[in-house]
Write a structure and sequence with these properties.
The complex is a heterodimer. Chain A is about 35% helix and about 30% strand. Chain A has helices at about 30-40, 55, 65-70, 85-95, 110-120, 150-160, 185-190, 205-215, 225, 240-255, and strands spanning about 5-15, 15-20, 25-30, 45-50, 75-80, 100, 125-135, 135-140, 145, 165-170, 195-200, 220, 230, 235. In chain A, the strands form 2 sheets. Chain A has an 8-stranded parallel β-barrel, surrounded by 6 helices. In chain A, helix 4 runs parallel beside helix 5, helix 6 (about 150-160) packs parallel to helix 7 (about 185-190) and helix 8 runs parallel beside helix 10. Chain B is an alpha/beta fold. Chain B has 5 helices and 13 strands. Chain B has helices at about 15-25, 50-60, 65-70, 85, 190-205, and strands at about 5-10, 30, 45, 80, 90, 105-110, 120-125, 130, 145-150, 150-155, 160-165, 170-175, 180-185. In chain B, the strands form 3 sheets. Chain B has an 8-stranded mixed sheet with strand order 2-1-3-4-13-12-11-8. In chain B, strands 5-6-10 form a 3-stranded mixed sheet, with no helix packed on it. In chain B, strands 7-9 form a two-stranded antiparallel sheet. Classes of the chains: A alpha/beta, B alpha/beta. The interface of A and B includes residues 95 and 121 of A.
Chain lengths: ~260, ~210
């Protein structure tokens, strides 16, 4: 049985971890190194770390902090934020990052192809942020501030054509809401691309992860679900037990067999 | 007193998580950066990521290559990880340079053929132990390890294959020369509990 990956997404701002709602209202949730140590104990499959600052204020990639995070992590780490050249991507891999996440810079001609040819497509993740306007979904770039004018599927297919090995599909509308994934979005994009899709945005519990996997996602990612606890959103880093994850996958397998 | 393990640093990847994982299991791992330091530790760990020829050239540049081609694993156990495992072999289809030749055989590229599988192999896979090598045989049944590689080793001697994994084909994911030279294709330092237990086993290899 192939076990789908369940991936915490950590958002950094000024070197600290925050969690947003619909990409706004950042709430401080802790220190990145401390969080990585807790996730080590929880034996997570993979971590995604996204730094908001390069997009927010043009700051450069925090190489020292990233090297420290990669050195602490006993699991593979994907990093996104400010990667705008193949050299930047290569140096991140040298620092111990397994995958680079590209969003805004994907529009630079040839950039993804360049990164993917040296690091391998599997090390390059194309991030697609999605916002709906009157029900219609659009891919947004630059931290959700600019509408690309493309549908999420067209945008994803373009990134795959350029050479990304995975799509990180993030619903801005669902971000931080914990009300469930945008399943139509996941269905549309997963069915239309040849690479794995990691779905993000809206997870509030295991049943949501299950729904996203059933909709076609290869991996499921979440922020709030792994950093908040209870109705009052107390900060508490958690991760489901392996047995719970496997049980979730079994339910899906059983449903597919039926 | 010699440190229990030295991690060879030759400019082919981040060794931070290896050092930290040893610390986690209560062992002080020291960084070894030149030939003179090789003798100061009881066991050696050769990590590495990247192109085969780059790895060989970096080892040569560090001055450690000449000492390692003559390595005696009985006296000082040596564990290669990822590219470090591949460097234990005679060579690789990836490049021109000769490896350390401590395990006879070469590295071959995954050929996906009609399978539609992607290369590199990247993700979590389990390892099935072959024979009695302590390097892998004591692992729990639900084991899983993190892999990132396009090439895999093909040892000439079947008895040196300590473990296999499956991706496109069955391939050798753990080697044991039988004389103190070991290798893992996956990253123990990125495979939490399962990796930790292997590094612990390595620390208990007699020397």
């Amino acid at each position: 049985m192939l076990i789908n990956r369940v991936v915490p997404v950590l958002l950094m701002r000024d070197g600290l971890l925050v969690k947003t709602e619909q990409f706004k209202k950042p709430v401080y949730v802790g220190d990145p190194i401390n969080a990585v140590r807790i996730f080590n104990d929880k034996e997570v499959d993979e971590l995604v770390i996204l730094d908001m600052d390069p997009c927010r204020n043009g700051s450069s990639i925090k190489t020292d902090l990233i090297e420290e995070i990669a050195g602490e992590a006993f699991m593979p780490v994907a990093y996104g934020g400010g990667i705008d050249s193949a050299d930047a991507a290569r140096s991140l891999v040298r620092l111990g990052i397994e995958k680079v996440v590209i969003n805004s810079a994907a529009t630079k001609p040839g950039l993804i192809a360049d990164i993917s040819s040296t690091l391998g497509a599997q090390a390059v993740v194309g991030s697609v942020d999605v916002k709906r306007r009157r029900g219609k979904a659009w891919a947004w770039t630059e931290g959700g501030s600019k509408n690309s004018g493309n549908s999420p599927l067209a945008h994803s297919q373009h990134l795959v054509g350029e050479g990304v090995g995975e799509i990180f599909l993030n619903s801005i509308d669902r971000d931080g809401t914990m009300k469930g994934f945008d399943l139509d979005l996941i269905r549309t994009v997963s069915a239309g691309v040849s690479v794995p899709v990691m779905a993000c945005g809206g997870a509030g519990g295991l049943h949501h992860l299950q729904e996203a996997l059933e909709a076609g996602a290869s991996a499921v990612a979440a922020g709030s679900m792994f950093v908040f606890h209870g109705r009052h959103r107390a900060v508490l880093i958690t991760y489901p037990a392996r047995s719970e994850i496997i049980e979730t996958m079994r339910i899906i397998e059983a449903a597919e067999d039926a | 007193m010699r440190a229990p393990v030295g991690v060879i640093n030759y400019g082919a990847g981040n060794i931070g998580s290896i050092i930290n994982m040893f610390a986690r299991i209560g062992a002080e791992a020291v960084v070894v950066s030149d030939a003179s330091q090789l003798e100061s530790v009881e066991r050696l760990l050769l990590p590495g990521v990247g192109h085969y020829d780059h790895g060989v050239r970096q080892l040569k540049r560090s001055g450690m290559y000449d000492r390692l081609v003559d390595h005696d694993g009985h006296r000082q156990p040596l564990l290669g990880i990822c590219l470090g495992m591949q460097l234990l072999m005679d060579g690789s289809d990836e490049g021109e340079e000769a490896g350390l030749g401590l395990v006879p055989g070469r590295c071959r590229l995954f050929e996906p053929g009609e399978s539609g599988m992607k290369v590199p192999h990247m993700g979590w896979s389990s390892v099935t132990a072959h024979g009695e090598s302590p390097a892998i045989s004591a692992q729990p049944e639900d084991n899983r390890y993190y892999f990132v590689h396009s090439y895999y080793v093909v040892p000439e001697r079947r008895e040196q294959v300590a473990g296999t994994s499956h991706y496109i084909t069955d391939f050798c994911s753990a080697v044991d020369s039988g004389s103190g030279v070991l290798g893992y294709q996956f990253h123990p330092e990125k495979s939490h509990r399962f990796g930790m237990s292997l590094l612990k086993t390595f620390l208990s290899t007699p020397c």
